[in-house]
Amino acid sequence: MKFHYDPPKIIKLIFSNFLWNTKNGEILLTFDDGPNPGTTEKLLELLKVNNIKALFFCLGENVSKYPELCRKIIDDGHTIGNHTFSHKKFSEVSKNEIIEEIKKINSLLSEKFNYQIKYFRPPYGRFNFATSKIMKEMNLVNVMWSLLTYDFEGKIEIVKMAVTKYLKNNSIVVFHDSNKTKNLLLDSVKFLIDEVEKNKYKFGEPENCLK
């Protein structure tokens, strides 16, 4: 299954250990697929200027390639989440491969940065009952979203439309820290920041938003 925005209540009840909204009425800003040279550095600077703490769902293979960027994310006070090691579709691999994909990045962060990951987001946002069971077994919290910005389409007009239509005071917003979004990522995040301010909402820190 995959939902682009807030799913029906019945889905939330069935997958009760998944989070689609914040629990404290604040906006949680999340980024998938990084770290990525050329975008992550600029993104971190923008977040620092605006005093925003975000949740970065990193890929293990990118952490391996760019450890200095991962270190910078941590040092700036942001949270690292597990987006698997290499972004494989769960529907195309075995349960053992899924577990290995998850464990590999957890071990990498633990060994290289002494960092313990708490949060997980499945590749492509796809999940099923097996995903739910694995999360419970591995003691991870599955964090989905209620606002997919479609930044990966490469058109800021689409991002603006999605943000304007779906932003709420308990939104979990997802952007992508990747080459696909490098030409619009900063402007997209700036637009979100302006909309949050205009609506008198506020950004929250990951730990508080997901308690």
**Under the CATH scheme, which architecture would be assigned?**
Alpha-Beta Barrel
Count of DSSP H/I helices: 9
Give the count of structural domains: 1
H-E string = HEEHEHHEHEHEEHEHH
CATH topology: TIM Barrel
Rg value: 16 Å
Please state the average pLDDT score: 94
Q: What portion of residues belong to β-strands? A: 5-15%
- Low-confidence spans: none
Can you list the strand order of the major beta sheet?
Answer: 4-3-2-8-7
The dominant shape is globular
Q: Find the count of extended strands (DSSP E, 2+ residues).
A: 8
Q: Biggest sheet, open or closed, and with what strands and sense?
A: 5 strands, parallel
CATH homologous superfamily - what is it?
Glycoside hydrolase/deacetylase
Specify the CATH class.
Answer: Alpha Beta
Global structural class: alpha/beta
Helix content: 40-55%
The CA-CA distance between the termini, in Å, is 25 Å
